[in-house]
Amino acid sequence: MQRRALTLTLSGATVALLTASAFLIPTPYAEMSPGPTYDTLGSYSTESGQPEKPVIAITGTDTFKHDKGGQLRMVTVEVSRADYHPNSVEVLSGWLSDDKIVVPRTVIYPEGQTAEQATQQNTALFDDSEDQAITAALAAKNIKPVKTEVVVDSVTAGSPADGKLQPKDVITAVDGTALAKPDDVHTLIQKHKPGETVALTITRDGKQQDVSIVTAQSHDTGPSRALVGFVPRTQNVFPFDVKIQLDNVGGPSAGMMFALGIIDELSQEDITGGLKIAGTGTIDADGKVGPIGGVQMKTLAAKRDNASVFLTPADNCADAVKNAPSGMKLVKVTTLQSALDALNTLRAGGTPTLCG
What we know:
alpha+beta; Ribosomal Protein S5, domain 2; Pdz3 Domain; six-stranded mixed sheet; six-stranded antiparallel sheet; 9 helices; 20 strands; globular; PDZ; endopeptidase La
């Protein structure tokens, strides 16, 4: 009898310990859930009480506003904070939930990358996506860039460029030599030996200035060379100005919806036909639409905000169909032109190619 009592006591202690562990021990997972959506044809405010600003601002050419009430909503996914480590109970709850996805933590925060670095990377991807969207949209309107310039995409923390260069700085010359093509920035910097000073002429917020940077020595497996510590990218310059003004959003997945918003503002015809349309997808300068992550959460966000149509990258269709909200048309798209064709079909009362 005493032995049985002891066994029950030990078993009860084990259960209690396991239960406590389920609530206390963090797991290597993160959560994704439906995030806010933004009408690329509308305006938004980052803070309560602050004046709104248009998501897309086009100046220097004629634009058109339409009054049919149509929307082109880009969708987002909320991700758990970098310092949030769900316990086993929270992970199980997420797996059973219809409006959350539990993923390995490294999917959102790659190993060896800080939360700040992840944010910087997503911001850089967003900036590049803007340029690709603008280029693709204007190409669809037969408008070509007048030139291509070099901009700072990101700055490496602790490098010689840290504190001297900023993302979006436009580099116009190196050591007084104007850049004839984007690759010139690397060629001209590599003329220096480590420890020498390189002079960059940049434009920041519309003002030109000179920045001197003492180069460091590279430490990778290649030949020793002068290191400045920034990643350049190119951006196209067009006959008029197009700005995408959306803060606190990162990643490349809004590219297609930005492109459609730009086309709508440059078109006399309302390409939405008065429908509330949501969608997602990366885009390149040639108008090819690519897949994104978290599509099931994005369709839920679209449904929550009253969209009736969801423009879906073809490679995401299978996942989107698995959790498709009732009453929403999942339209398959492969290119910017296929998205425009689908909108034409919808305006005419027809049914475009759907997922599934």
